[in-house]
Amino acid sequence: MDLKRNTKLNAGIYVLALVGTCLAQLNGWRGVELLCKPLLMVVLSSWFYFNSRRMGDRFTLLVQAGLFFSLVGDVALMFTAVDDFNFLIGLGAFFLAQLCYGFAFIQNILDAGDMSGLLPSALMAIAIAAYAFFFTWDLLPHVEEGLEMPVIAYVGAITLMGITAAFRYRRTWPRSFWLVLGGALLFMASDSALAWNRFRMTLDHAPLWIMVPYALGQAMLAAGALVHVQDPEASGRQRPMPV
Predict the structure, then answer these.
(1) pLDDT single digits (tens) 72-123
(2) 97 Cβ partners below 8 Å, 6+ apart?
(3) Which of 3, 40, 82, 89 has the alpha carbon at shortest distance from 207?
(4) Average pLDDT estimate for 121-148
(5) Where are the domains of the chain?
(6) Disulfide check for 25: which of 86, 207, 209, 227 has CB 3.0–4.6 Å away?
(7) For residues 223 and 210, what is the distance between their CA atoms, to the nearest angstrom?
């Protein structure tokens, strides 16, 4: 058994790291957080790499880069209390992560070369864009001076990720589409909670609202991407999704 590729083993470690991170943040266990939070992306990116390396292409490299920048963002945000500039570093790292995911999904769309399912894709994309617009409209008056443009740029990147995930409809296998779209939406939900908690008001049990959808979203993005590249027809025209 190849432990590096074993999904059950890696999923178990991932869940333990998530539980440890949440408990550490809720109880102020700094050492536990420093161990468990980075472990999330280390385990996920290792599992994705060893399961996808033989199918390595631009799509998988971009997803891997997204996981790497997510790790950088996780580490930076842990040190926000030490220096608030680390919040900007974390924001920048996640900005790059979401661009990588978005470009990976664009690569998928271009490879498929199929215009079917355009209307459902467009409707989902409009819904995602509308949510991002109204959330940002409500949030901006509460954002600290000087952070408005970084926040707007960040929202633009995560919206791009969500929209491009929606446009994979009928351009990949159904399981890959729903995993990736669900992961993107959970990532957006996590970032919404993070922004609300920092700029609007403190959320009760904030680590749960932020970390649980974030960890689930990242896992679904990686798993959905892996389903896409492991399918025998993943590099060409995709099987249409059922209507």
Answers:
(1) 999 999 999 888 899 999 999 999 999 999 999 999 999 888 778 899 999 9
(2) 65, 66, 67, 68, 69, 70, 73
(3) 40
(4) 95
(5) 61-230
(6) 207
(7) 20
